[in-house]
Amino acid sequence: MNRFFAVLVAFGLTLGLTVPTALAAPPQSVRFDIRVALAGDLTASTTRGTFTVSGALSDAGLESGSGRFSGQGHLKTGEPNSLHSEMTLVGADGTIELYLVGTFGHLPAALADGDGSWRLGAGTGAYAGLQGRGSWTAIADFRAAIARTGPPIVTFVDTGTVN
């Protein structure tokens, strides 16, 4: 009986140590390259564009979303201001919701840099249940908008991990 109990305890400990490890996938590197055109003003804009993702994920498709700056300080003083943006990425393998926060500064300007953090929201298809986070950098090009020949174009590079 004691030997049976010892084997049972050893089996239970082994099972308890290996099952959580098998369920928790290690984070893997990912990179999103997203290019969007802005419509509306900087306090409530919509975005339409394209994306590619590489690394742990491989897909490409269309982006649609919205963004807003909190307040008007950046337009009045040129100082950085908080950006909040939601993007929906629709690729061949499913849909990814992406949330960005950070700062975009020194506006108005022909070119403006931004940076911050991102996290994944809900996903569908191959991306259902996917979790991820990281950082982003971006360049907003307002030259066509200033010349009244086209919309502002923003190019984001989001790097981080998913699992």
What's the gist of this structure?
The protein is α+β, with helices and mostly antiparallel strands. The protein has helices at residues 2-23, 73-77, 143-146, and strands at 28-41, 44-55, 59-69, 81-91, 94-104, 111-123, 132-141, 153-162.
Characterization of the model:
The protein is an alpha+beta fold and 163 residues long. The protein is built from three helices and eight strands, in the order αβββαββββαβ. The protein has helices at 2-23, 73-77, 143-146; strands at 28-41, 44-55, 59-69, 81-91, 94-104, 111-123, 132-141, 153-162. It has an eight-stranded antiparallel barrel. Strand 4 (81-91) and strand 5 (94-104) form a beta hairpin. It is globular, with a radius of gyration of 22 Å. The model is unreliable at 4-22 (pLDDT under 50).
Shape: globular
Number of helices: 3
Structural class: alpha+beta
Secondary-structure element series: HEEEHEEEEHE
Helix percentage range: 10-25%
Rounded to an integer in angstroms, the radius of gyration calculated over CA atoms is: 22 Å
Pick out the low-confidence regions. Answer: 4-22
Work out the number of β strands.
8
Oligomer: single chain
With strands numbered from the N-terminus, the spatial order across the biggest sheet is: 1-2-3-4-5-6-7-8
> How much strand?
over 45%
What profile does the largest beta sheet have? 8 strands, antiparallel, barrel
Head-to-tail CA distance between termini: 43 Å
**Nearest-integer average pLDDT:** 83
